[in-house]
Amino acid sequence: MTLRDWKNRLLGTPWVYDSVRPLVVGGLDLGALARFCGTGPADRVFDLGCGTAQLVSRLEFERYLGVDLDPVALARAARLASPRIRFLEGDAWDEDFLALDPTCVLMIGVVHHLSDAEFERLVGRLRRGKSPSRRIVAVDVTFFEGMAVNNLLSRLDRGRHVRTIGGYERLYGEASLGVARKAELSTRAGYVRYIGFELRFEG
């Protein structure tokens, strides 16, 4: 196992991700993140890569389905399960996705882990369903001019496909996703920022 593999395994540990990582980046502002997601009480939310579901208690929704590949993270998230909140492990989520027919898809910290080809295949899966108003909210690490600490942490991130803001915009355009809204989301200390996009299907 390489040093990078050891680092990624450590950073992927749910306790480290929930407790240590926020300290390193200067304090996550979950309230601001939830406001950017902009979900409402009538939304059916599909949270792809939900992890330990730190955000779910700050969101409004009718129903919520969180999906993740990590069973340890989902075991931590399971404490939040209820008749309106479900969690699913693995990548075989298509039937559950269609049954939910979400109005909003959240991908928080997901896209920078995907190659262009992997993202294109994912968007094809997300296009299915009947909801005409479905939107995608994607928030990821990126690079900002003059932000040395942010840019160093972005390079050290577990994701191997961290892009510039323009790179994300190109990726979304090639997948026929229009940018309805975008914003920089800062941590509490301000030396790390994320880029958030609200995306709509086109064509």
Provide key terms for this protein.
203 residues, Rossmann fold, 7-stranded mixed beta sheet, 8 helices, single chain, disordered N terminus
Write a short abstract of this structure.
This protein has helices at 3-11, 14-25, 30-37, 71-77, 94-100, 116-126, 148-156, 165-174, and strands at residues 44-48, 63-68, 85-89, 104-108, 135-141, 177-186, 193-201. By secondary structure, the protein is an alpha/beta fold. Strands 3-2-1-4-5-7-6 form a seven-stranded mixed sheet, with helices on both faces.
CATH class: Alpha Beta
Number of helices: 8
Helical content (DSSP H or I, runs of 4+): 25-40%
| CATH topology name | Rossmann fold
Question: Which stretches are low in confidence, meaning pLDDT under 50 for 5 or more residues running?
Answer: 1-11
What CATH architecture label applies? Answer: 3-Layer(aba) Sandwich
Number of domains: 1
Shape: globular
Secondary-structure class: alpha/beta
Distance between the termini: 44 Å
| Largest beta-sheet characterization | 7 strands, mixed
What are the secondary-structure elements, in order, as H or E? HHHEEHEHEHEHHEE
Kindly provide the radius of gyration, computed on alpha-carbon positions and rounded to a whole number of angstroms: 16 Å
Strand segment tally? 7
Numbering strands along the chain, what is their spatial order in the largest sheet? 3-2-1-4-5-7-6
Mean pLDDT across residues: 89
Structure description:
With 203 residues, the protein is of the alpha/beta class. It has a single domain, classed as Rossmann fold, CATH 3.40.50.150. The chain contains eight helices and seven strands, in the order H-H-H-E-E-H-E-H-E-H-E-H-H-E-E. Strand 6 and strand 7 form a beta hairpin. The N and C termini lie far apart (44 Å). The model is unreliable at 1-11 (pLDDT under 50).
